[in-house]
Description:
The protein has 6 helices and 6 strands. By secondary structure, the protein is an alpha+beta fold.
Amino acid sequence: MSTEEGVKIDIETTEQFEEDVSKILNEEAEKQEAKKPEEGSSGTVEDAGEETAQDLPEEERSGEEKPEGSDKEDKKKHHGKKNKKDPRDEKIEQLEDRVKRQMAEFENFRKRTDKEKSQMFDMGAKSVVEKILPVIDNFERGLENIPDGCDTAFVDGMQMIYKQLTAELDKLGVKAIEAVGQPFDPNFHNAVMQVESEEYESGTVAQELQKGYMYHETLVRPSMVAVVS
Length: 229
């Protein structure tokens, strides 16, 4: 290669380089112009920033941090408001209420039945005692009027039977009513006559003509008495 050709090449390369540099500078200038915001657009970014800040929660706008667990509590409250009661839980509550009612009704029925059973038993026992009392009266009359010279073994046997009968009645709750020396009580005494007495005051039972009996708290037969006038 000659020297002239080499110089020519160098000169052409320098011109091309200048053109390239000029083109690059122009492109950079155009880019800078494109990046500049249009007139009146300077407040747009700030306004957008303000709107974004307003949309933020109060804690984030103020810069304060939420206490730990607050998010969970908010979720629980929100979740509790939306969630409805499970139908299965309602069904269980209804069944439990029904069982409680049935148990209460059964308990009332049992108490009522026991009371009725006790009353029926007392009525039956009272009826039996009423039928036995005349037998007791006859035993007492017979023992009070034993003739002289009667067989002692026979008398002892009658007394033993009488004691056994009265003991069994006592176990059942049959008690004789106290009458002689007690103030007259129309609830327990049946006055059939009036007598005069120096031993007792007026209105007092002076004599018992027939014993009266009680079955527990129930009157079976009132005492037939004579009262001091």
